[in-house]
Each structure stands twice: as C-alpha cells, then as structure tokens.
Design goal:
- The complex is a heterodimer of chains A (207) and B (320).
- Chain A has four helices and ten strands.
- With 207 residues, chain A is α/β, with parallel strands linked by helices.
- A five-stranded parallel β-sheet of chain A has the order 3-2-1-4-5, sandwiched between helices. Chain A has a five-stranded mixed β-sheet with strand order 7-6-10-9-8, covered by helices on one side.
- In chain A, helix 3 packs parallel to helix 4.
- With 320 residues, chain B is of the alpha/beta class.
- The chains are: A alpha/beta (207), B alpha/beta (320).
- Chains A and B meet through loops of A and loops of B.
Amino acid sequence: MLVTGIKSKPVYAPLQADLRGRYHLMLAMGVGAAPLLRVIAEMQDCAPQALKDTQVLFVPDSATAAADTPGIDEFRAAAVGGAQAYPTTAALLSEFKEVLASSLMGTRLYVAGPESFIGLAMKIALEFNLNKDEIRAEECGTLARRVYCIHCRATAENVRTNIVRCLSCERWLLVRDHYSRRLAAYMGVMVDAEAPGELPPLKEVFL
Amino acid sequence: MNDAQTLAVEVVGIEQVTPLIKHFKLAAVGGGSLPAFSGGSHIIVVMQGGDRVHKNPYSLLSAPQQLDRYEIGVRRMEESRGGSHYMHDAVTVGSRLEIAHPVNLFGLDKIARKHLLIAGGIGITPFLAQLEDLHGGAVPYELHYSVRSPEHAAFLERLRTREGDRLHMYYDSEAQSIPFDALLAAQPLGTHVYVCGPAGMIKHVIGTAQSYGWPDSHIHWEQFSAPPVGDAFEVFLARSNLNVRVPPDQSLLESIEAAGVEVPYLCRGGVCGFCQTKVLELDGELQHNDHFLSDAEKAKGKSIMPCVSRARCQRLVLDL
C-alpha cells in the first residue's frame, strides 16, 4: 500500500569533502557525527588548510547517545575552525540561519543525521538558494518521518508507522514516499476516504 | 526552430549608438503584438543577403513588457562573414526581415538572493532586457559594464538614468578594469553571476568564480560564436543520401540547409546544443568550436554541433 518509486523521495550518498569549496559548513545530529568526522579526517589527509575554514554545528540525540558514540569533543579535538554543540535541533537551526546569512559564495554545506534533521536543514538552505551542487547529505540514524497532513496542513514528527492518525484533524493518513523539500516532510493522505473505517494493519516501517 | 516558424518584421527605427553598434527597432509587419519573451532571450535574424542567407542570433534588449516592437543591438564585426555588415550596410528603415521566435538560454535565476551582472562591450544587450525585470524588485543586483572607451559605451544614458549607483562603468582607455577577484571573493550566499562579453572575459569570470568556490549552478554566461572560417570539406548525410560540400566561409549547418536538409536549431552560436548531430564515420579530425559539448565528448568525436564546428578530413558521415 505504501507507494514506492516516487521520484521526490530524497536520495543520499556517503559524504565526501568537496575541496572546490572555500568554506565548509557542517551540521550533524547524533550519530551523524561519525560521517562528518570521516570527512574531516579526509581533509586532514589531503587538504589540512581547509580545516580552519570548517565550522561544525552539532546537536546530540539523547535517544541514541551512548558513551562510545562520538560527539562535540571529537570535533573540537579535530582542530576545525569552529565547533559548537546546541541543546536542541531548534537552537541549532536558528544558529544555522544566522551563519548562512553572513556566509559567502563558495560555501559547501554538509549535513549528517536522521532524514528529518536533514530535511529541516535543507529547507533552510533552500531559502538561501543553495543548490544541489553546494549541499551534501548523508542519512544515518532513525528513518522516522515528518508527515504533513495534506487535509489540515498539520505536521507530525517522528512517525514510524505506515499509517498515522493526524493529531490535528484525527484523519488516518497513509504515509507516502512523496516528499516536499519546501515543507521538509512526507505527504500523509487520508487512507480510508473511499471506505470509511477500513484501515490497513498498523505496522512499524520507519525504524 | 525551423523557418516555417519565423515572423515577418519591419525595421521601424535605426540608431547608430556607438561607432560600431547600431540599435534596430523591429515591428511586426502589419502591426500587432510580437510573442512574449523574458529577459536574456535572443532571436535569430534571417538575412537574405545576395546569394547567401545569414541567420544570426541577437539578444533582445527591449523591455519584455513592451511587445509592439523588439529591439536589438548589432555590433559591426571586423571579421564578419557578412551578417553584421549586412545589418549595418544594407538594412534601412522599412527593410523587412524574418526572425525566429525568441528563445531564452540566458535567463535570470528566479530564486537568486542577489544578481551580479558583468558585461563587456556588445555583451550589454541581454542585460538591458533583464534589468527591466530586475528594476524595482526586491532582489539586490549590480551591473559591471566594461567598454573600450566612453564613445563605445552603448546605452549608457539609459543605464545611468535607471540604474544609478547600481551601475559600475570601466573604460579600457582609462586603464580601468572590472575587479573580478574582489567581486567574486565576497558575494553573499545565494548570489548568481551572469557574464556576457568577449570570450576571454567569460573564461576569466568562470575561472575566477570557480577558484573562489562558486558552484556551476550559480555561474551563467552567454556567448554566441560566429562560425569560424576553415578549410573546405565534404560531408555525406547518411539518411538523406546526400553529399554536401562545405566551403571555407560557410558553416556546416548553413551548407546542410542550403542542400535542402533541415536541422533543428535554436541559437546557431554553439550554445544551446539543439543542433547536436551524430557522427557516423570520420577519417580525420573534428574542429569543435561550440560551448556545449564537454571536453570529453569533444575528444570522443561522436557528436558535432554543425552551427559552429567543422572538420578537417577526407570523409565525414553524419546521421542526417
């Protein structure tokens, strides 16, 4: 029932340093620290001068944080130009906007973390007219989705199931692969519109 | 675009705006509105000059909101194959010309946060139309316009009046040059740069922007190459079963058209990629003069842009 093969579903690739850029702005949430540290290690090997123009914004993910997962200390130890941790995603994104507002052409953006985090960062990057050739993103962590109710326009966070009840209008929504970059959310469409009350079995699919 | 889709226009005004540039105003024969266009568009002007048909691309410089006439600026080229000389010498008020519908290969990015326009000489023309779209809008922009000397500064009064301090002038005669490094090193995120002018200037802007980390999606340029002259050669059109001779001063595309075979095209200047043609056989080398194929594609020799490119060979077979 989950429609697949929809082109708007974002595709991610393992992060690599793009040394054609002059400034490197890196955002990570939780386990997203590891891919960024891998890029930084790549820079240390082949372009150490790029590190001073590298800035990291990090938000730990309390749900997945364990003693042995890398965090802000590892970024600070890597001698990048700046590394800052934020208590919440909202605080990080607010600072991200400030940074973009004073950034220059030649900046490359790297984002690593759960897709919902990547989506929120991309939404802001889009407002600053960053194009595909300026952004790299690697997905890691939970596949839980942000789901936009196309009926009442409410957005549900952390959706792990194939269908979800809209918290605002209480319709049961089918979570589609149809993704909006502008809303940073997957589209949720009323699942029992044709046959009221007939719902597919509830399954956890986005883990 | 083929000739069936051309429009008949009449020259309703000509002004010599610099020693080398004439400004032409074209209206639809019989009056009425011309097709709508957006800033940065060009038209192809078809000139029936003697035994030769010239089809040259010219940027529209008039306001996109004003459709009772199109305006173009034509620079007299020293090494003209005839097109610009025909426009300068043979065309008078009242002359009739055929033009192809406008096509835009140099449009403004609609969601840019800033526009940086860089013009050299006659390269000012597409920007004149774009400025009409930008003027009074919320998105900041600046125009850097470089010319040989004050007498060569076409449309300067119009620009000064409308653009004020957004206009930055540079005169070679006064040893002034556009500070490309300073400009491209410090633009806010979301800026797009547009350049139109001599080949060297375009190459320099692209290279400088890239060296400051600009991604290709933020760099826009337009340069219509005139088809260069070269050695005569012969081409066999496989599907049409025709041998065509290409003389030194005629392009491959023009020769194929003269033989009665139609090739789709939009710009005739090596930019748009529309006339890309498959090479089936070749026993020499292709002389690529376009800005469309990548270096790797040019090296492969499997495609040619007949509008500006030629061959030095005994035998060339095209899929036409």
